[in-house]
Request: fold
Amino acid sequence: MSDTIIIKGKDTADAIKARIAAAIAKLAAREDKIIPKLAVILVGNNPASLIYIKQKQQQAAQVGVETELHHLPENTEFETLLDLIKRLNQDPAVNGIILQLPLPLELKPFTYKAMIAIDSKKDADCFNPKNLGLTFLDRANIVPCTSHGVLQLLDHHDINVEGKHVVIVGTSNLVGKPLALELINRNATVTTCNIHTRNIRNITQTADILVVAIGHAKFFDHTYVNKDCIVIDVGINQLENKSFDQELADQLQAQGEQATAQAYAQANNLILEQALIEVNNRTRKQFTVGDIDFEDMLGNCAMVSKVPGGVGLLTVANLLHNTLILTLLQHKLNFEEFGLQRRYIRDQFDISHK
Reply:
C-alpha cells in the first residue's frame, strides 16, 4: 500500500471561499450594500473556456460575487475588444475584470496588449505589469491565482519552503515566473527549467519540492523524483477515453446514474460502489489528467497533488479572493473589519494601488 500523501485542494479552497463569503455578507449588510462584481470577457466559443467560465460563475454565486459575462463573437476585432475593456475600466460598478484565454487565432497576437489594457486596480487575474511588479517587490495586495494556489496547498500541509530546493518545470507568465518570485520572497532556493533544459532528470531528482506546469499529459513519472520529494502538478490535459462506451452513455442519459449502475453491477457481478466507478469511467469521452503520471508516483514520493482536484480548485478561489480585495481597495475599506489581512504590506512605504 502506498505511503505517499495525496494533496487535495478542496479543503484549502473551501476555507478561502468561506472567508470570502463571510466578508461579502458584511459588505452586503452595510447601508450602501456593496456587492463585488467580476466582469468576465470571452471572445469566441472555445469549449474549454465555456466550461471554465461556467465553473467560475457557479463558484462566484456561492460566495456572493456577482458576475457579468461579456461574450463577443469569434470574429471580433481588437479595437472592439479594447473598447469593451476601457468601458469596464471606467464602470464604477465593476470591481474586477478577467479576459478568458486563449483568444481566437486572429486575436492571439494582441493577447499582451489586451491584458495590459485592464486597469491594474481591477486586474483580478493579476496579469497587469504593475501587479506583477508589486509581486516582484513583495508589496502586492493581489497575487497571480494559480501560482499562489501552489503555495496555499503547501501552507495547508504545513510545508515551509524556506531553505528548500524547489524545482519549477515551466516558465510561463501565468504560473512558472510568478511562482518563482513568490518562492524567492519566502527564502526558497529556486531552480527553473524549460523544454530546453538539458539532463532535466538530474535536476528534478535533487528537488525537495517539484512543481510541473508544461501542459504535457503524464510526462513526469517516478524516475524524475526522489523518495522524499513533494510533487505539485499544475498541468491540465485532456486525453481521449479509449474505454468510452456509447451504448452505456446513452443508457446513463435515459435511465440516470443509479439505475444504470445497478443494471451494470448485476450484469458484471459487481457491488454497486464498483459499478458506479465503472459507469463513470466508461461514459466520459475524455479524461482530465495532469503533467504527472499520478499512479506511477504513488509510493515513489512523499506527497503528490491530484489532477483534477488539486491546484485548479485554488485558482478559482483566488480569483474570487482577488475580486474581494480589489473591491475593498476601491472603496477604501479596512481589511481587518472584514476578517482579512493586508498580508503583502511590509511597511509605511507601500505603493500598492496608489
Q: What stands out?
A: The longest strand covers residues 37-43. The two ends are 55 Å apart (CA to CA). Residues 10-29 form the longest helix (20 residues).
